[in-house]
Amino acid sequence: MQLLCLTDRDPADSLPGLDLLPHEIRTSPLSLRVPDTMADRFDAILIDGTLDPRRARTASMSLIDSTETPRVVVLSEVALPVLTTDWGVRDLLLPTASPAEIELRLRLLERPSLADETPSPAVQAAGVVIDESNFIARVYGRTLDLTYKEFELLHFLTGHPGRVFTREQLLSEVWGTDYFGGTRTVDVHVRRLRAKLGDHEGLISTVRGVGYGFARARYEETSE
C-alpha cells in the first residue's frame, strides 16, 4: 500500500511495527495542509497523535471534506479518551501494535462495506483465482498470503494471461503513473510472488530484455 503519514518525526518512532512492513510511506508535517489531489493518491493516511493529540485532531478534521482516503490515527493508550467520532478516522492503532495487527487493519480498510455494490466476479487463469471482493488469491485451491501490492500485481497479470509487459507498463498499471520509485520495485515484487507461488512459480516468466508475462507457455500452446 501507499501510505501518507502525517507526523513531526520518523514514523518508526510513533509506530515501530510499521517499519517492518513493505509499504511505501511518505511523510508530511502535521501542521502542513495536505492538498486534496495529494491525499487522493494514497491508499490510507496515518495520523500521528502520540506527541500532540490536539494537533492530530485538527489535521484529521481538515481532511474530512477534502478526501475519501481512509484515515487511521495513532494514539497512546492514555490519550484514548480524547478520540471522538468528529475526528473522522476509520480506525485506531496503538504505538505498540504488532506488524501483523497493523497489516490486518490496513487490509481491512480496503474491504468493501456491506452497502457497496455487487462484488466483482473472480478473475482466474492457469489455476490462479483472484477474488477481488474479499482480497483473496488462490493457486490451485491454496490461499496465498500476499501484501497489497503483491495482490494487485498478481491480479493484473492473471487478468492478462499469455501477454508480456515491460517493467514500465507494470509500474504504471499497478503502482500508478504518479509513483516516484523505479522499476526495480517490480522485480522485487515478482521475486516475492514467485516465492509464494511455490511449485507454480513458473507461471510468471521472465522475457529477457522485455519484462514479465503470466502463463505464457500454456496460452501460447492453446493459441497454436
Automatic annotation (TrEMBL):
One of its GO terms (cellular component) is cytosol. It comes from the Bacteria. GO terms for molecular function: phosphorelay response regulator activity; transcription cis-regulatory region binding. It holds the Pfam family Trans_reg_C. GO terms for biological process: regulation of DNA-templated transcription. Keywords: Activator, DNA-binding, Phosphoprotein, Transcription, Transcription regulation, Two-component regulatory system. Residues 120-216 form the OmpR/PhoB-type domain. CDD domains: trans_reg_C. Residues 120-216 bind DNA. This is Response regulator transcription factor. It comes from Leucobacter viscericola.
